[in-house]
Write a structure and sequence with these properties.
CATH superfamily of the domain at 47-118 and 132-362 and 377-448: Alpha/Beta hydrolase fold, catalytic domain
Biased composition (Acidic residues): 512-523
Subcellular location: Membrane
Organism: Cryoendolithus antarcticus
Number of helices: 19
Radius of gyration: 24 Å
Structural class: alpha/beta
Keywords: Hydrolase, Lipid degradation, Lipid metabolism, Membrane, Transmembrane, Transmembrane helix
CATH class of the domain at 47-118 and 132-362 and 377-448: Alpha Beta
Number of strands: 13
Strand content: 5-15%
InterPro entries: AB_hydrolase_fold (IPR029058), AB_hydrolase_lipase (IPR006693)
């Protein structure tokens, strides 16, 4: 394709894509403006019209299937906030407010109690129940609800951790649904939205961790991040050496550091041209503020279809591992506000192929003296991280470049791949409890410091172990590296999963379990729908170690004193 003269970075096709994208954005602005001016009855009429049109085009079998699953997905989809979703499953959650060093007020949620423990004091000083603290953080343009909006309790990571005896905290980034307040400005001002991942790393994450540890009176916590939530941890641990002593293990689900790129031609053209062009398209406040408008106008099944097509266009994801009723429940909670500047920061990272801080001087191709000889953008020094790191990523995730990531992380990093998984599968896949949770529990049991500090006889596994492990779609495992002088016993991966994590489930699929539990076609079955099953068994302590045996059908298990 011939290059356009003078500004030769883009091809003619890229310019056509850019022009088309701006035309679509202009059309959306017009539609959004009209919608805001419409009275409520008109908006509801559009909703009913989209529902009727969808039902007419659907087959009777499809309508019947949706109605059967509606009793599960609808209460979750219609829940107003984090607390409402937790109440559906019988859990009592707390809300906390963290003030950052630069004046933002962040909403933080806590799940500290199993059902029936609400009258007990947890991590409240002498005489209270002592529990190990786990902190979870969401991804880009999300909030804490994405962790709990699942259609089965067994697949919900926070609920599983609570039942395993952990004190679970869930954070929120500045600007999202739970953190839209600052002591110095308001969300209608550009200054409020002038933040990127730099501010998450320098303020939001370390300030939240300090608050959680101060409140629970614990010396350390375990960090579990998803997507951008992992990038924020990589960044903050790399620039705060003392924070590494407060985080005993970092589990990165769908880790993000320097994504290789995007599948969509329009978005790829935006990245290649200049990341700052996003300011022209979306302004300098919140990005995709119209998402809530489309959710109000469209019937949930159509909204779900629209999200699926968008994910396929942007990232090449097919979301085949997430059931239809799980999408209906979770997609309404997928989006939350974030700044355009944060997305610009990611575009800078993708364009330069390095995990860097925000480039405040921009990237104009006509700037003088911007070559690497005269100008260097500060990188996050991720090799300085001392906290043990466990990466759990999908082999079909277009946003993960695992080789680049491992080169930029310390040698004690452990990497585990689930080959069939895409990005969102690490949150919502129908078998996430079988393929992801065992790795999370294993990391917590291996590295996490006991509640209240080190106990007699407790010893953390050597952080110098260098283990690159790949977990296949069928559960097989590959270990690379030198041998170990530890006493090892080989077991199969299937045995490991059964020992590490056993919820007492039968062998049927989630859809089959759902069908069996529903029986007649009821739409509203009340709170009993979300009743808890018996408390899960505690996992055995398994440690993935290097072994001289290179049999790819086995892993190594180490017994600890």
């Amino acid at each position: 394709m011939p290059r356009v003269p003078f500004v030769g970075r883009l091809s003619l096709r890229d310019y056509v894509a850019l022009i088309t994208s701006f035309a679509l954005l202009a059309l959306e602005v017009i539609i959004r403006t009209i919608t805001l001016l419409l009275p409520g009855p008109i908006v509801r009429w559009f909703y009913r019209a989209s529902r009727n049109a969808f039902n007419r085009l659907s087959s009777p079998a499809s309508r019947h299937s949706r109605n059967r699953k509606k009793a599960v997905s609808s209460p979750i989809a219609q829940a107003n906030d984090f607390l409402d979703i937790c109440e559906l499953y019988g859990y009592t959650a707390e809300e906390h407010i963290v003030q950052t060093g630069d004046g933002y007020l962040l909403g933080v949620h806590r799940l500290g109690y199993k059902r029936g423990e609400e009258d007990q004091k947890v991590n409240a000083g002498p005489g209270s129940v002592q529990k190990k603290v786990v902190y979870l953080h969401h991804g880009l343009m999300m909030n804490s609800e994405v962790w709990v909006c699942l259609t089965e309790r067994e697949r919900c990571l926070p609920f599983m951790l609570v039942e395993q005896g952990f004190d679970v905290w869930l954070g929120n980034n500045r600007g999202n649904k739970y953190s839209k307040k600052s002591l110095h400005t308001t969300p209608d001002k550009i200054a409020f939205w002038s933040f990127s991942m730099d501010q998450f790393a320098f303020h939001d994450i370390p300030d939240t961790i300090d608050y959680v540890l101060s409140t629970t009176k614990q010396p350390s916590l375990s960090y579990i991040g998803f997507s951008q939530g992992t990038a924020q941890a990589f960044a903050t641990l790399s620039i705060h050496p003392m924070l590494n002593e407060k985080v005993d293990v970092f589990v990165a689900l769908a880790p993000a550091m320097a994504p290789p790129g995007l599948a969509g031609g329009i978005v790829a053209s935006l990245v290649k041209s200049s990341p700052e062009i996003l300011y022209l398209a979306f302004g300098r406040r919140a990005i995709f503020g119209s998402a809530t408008m489309w959710q109000a106008l469209l019937y949930p099944a159509i909204f779900t279809w629209f999200i699926d097509k968008s994910l396929s266009f942007l990232f090449g994801w097919h979301t085949n591992n997430i059931t239809a009723h799980q999408k209906m429940a979770a997609y309404p909670h997928l989006y939350s506000f974030s700044s355009v500047k944060t997305v610009v920061h990611w575009f800078q990272i993708i364009r330069h192929g390095t995990f860097q801080m925000f480039d405040d001087e921009g990237s104009s191709p006509l700037a003088v003296g911007k070559g690497s000889k005269y100008y260097k953008i500060a990188k996050f020094p991720t090799r300085n991280i001392k906290t043990p790191i466990v990466l759990v990523y999908g082999g079909s995730d277009s946003l993960v470049d695992i080789e680049l990531m491992l080169r930029e992380l310390p040698r004690h990093t452990v990497a585990k791949c689930i080959k069939k998984y895409e990005h969102l599968d690490l949150l919502w896949a129908h078998d996430v409890d079988e393929l992801v949770f065992p790795h999370v529990l294993e990391a917590l049991q291996t590295y996490a410091m006991p509640a209240g500090g080190p106990q007699k006889g407790w010893k953390a596994i050597d952080r110098g172990i260098h283990d690159r492990q790949s977990l296949g779609a069928n559960g097989s495992s590959t270990l690379e590296g030198s041998g170990s002088d530890r006493s090892l016993r080989l077991i199969t991966q299937d045995q490991r999963l059964r020992q590490a994590y056993d919820w007492g489930l039968d062998s049927s699929t989630p859809d089959e379990q759902l069908d069996e539990s529903e029986g007649d076609e009821k739409v509203d079955e009340g709170p009993e729908r979300f009743a808890l099953s018996p408390t899960p068994k505690a996992p055995s302590l398994l440690v993935a170690l290097q072994t001289p045996d290179r049999n790819h059908d086995h892993i190594a298990e180490a017994t600890t004193p």
